[in-house]
Amino acid sequence: MIYVSTRGKAPELSFEETMLTGLARDGGLYVPKSIPKLSFGDIDQLKNNSYEEIALRIIFPFVGKSFSELEIIDIIEKTYSRFDHKSRAPMKKIAENHFLLELFHGPTLAF
Q1: Is 36 left (phi over 0), alpha (psi -120 to 50) or beta?
Q2: pTM score of the predicted model
């Protein structure tokens, strides 16, 4: 995966280089040069997976060869082990056809 600056005047970097660099030299933010696509079939296959399994499927294409799949699994497990809800970010029905995504179950209670 290659990352480019939003301002277009900084060198293209790998995921690892982007992590170590932070902001681009031109003051822009590094973003993926291309976004991996999931087909409807790919998305449909995710419906019975755990939050962690879905996170792996979404995150892994963005890291290139910087981390192995096992390393990403370990990071994901450590990250979500401190959430206080088994669904991690559950959907709460608040009215007919209206749902609220609860983003406050993590350790920072940020939302």
Answers
A1: beta
A2: 0.78
pLDDT for the residue 69: 94
Comparing CA positions, the residue from 104, 66, 69, 64 lying closest to residue 88 is 104
Predicted confidence band at 14 (pLDDT cuts at 50, 70, 90)?
Answer: very high
* Closest of 43, 78, 34, 20 to residue 70, by C-alpha: 78
d(C-alpha 70, C-alpha 81), whole Å: 16
**15 and 66 Cβ atoms separated by less than 8 Å:** yes
Say whether pLDDT at 111 is over 70.
no
